[in-house]
Design brief:
By secondary structure, the protein is mostly helical. The chain has one domain. Helices cover about 70% and strands about 0% of the residues. It contains three helices and no strands. α1 crosses α2. The model has no long low-confidence stretch (mean pLDDT about 90).
Length: about 80
């Protein structure tokens, strides 16, 4: 189980870091607004942190789904 968690979590961590670099190379956190148009009252570091964990969660979910699809029938029916 630990091996599976590491196989999913580590690539997702690396991909989240890359996504963070790509997104915030083009987006300034102080320019972000809510859907209603109000400014976000968070520091830059808070926006970076929240975005990183959001990227990590979404990418980990995608990795988990791929892992589930790649499992063999013999592994599932043990």
């Amino acid at each position: 189980m630990l091996r599976t968690a590491l196989q999913i979590g580590w690539p997702a961590f690396i991909a989240a870091g890359v996504m963070e670099l790509l997104v915030f190379a083009h987006v300034d956190p102080s320019d972000l607004h809510t859907i209603g148009g109000a400014e976000i009252a968070l520091s830059r570091q808070a926006v970076y942190t929240i975005a990183f964990f959001a990227f990590w969660a979404v990418i980990a979910a995608a990795c988990t789904f791929c892992w589930m699809l790649l499992r063999r029938e013999e592994d599932i029916n043990r």
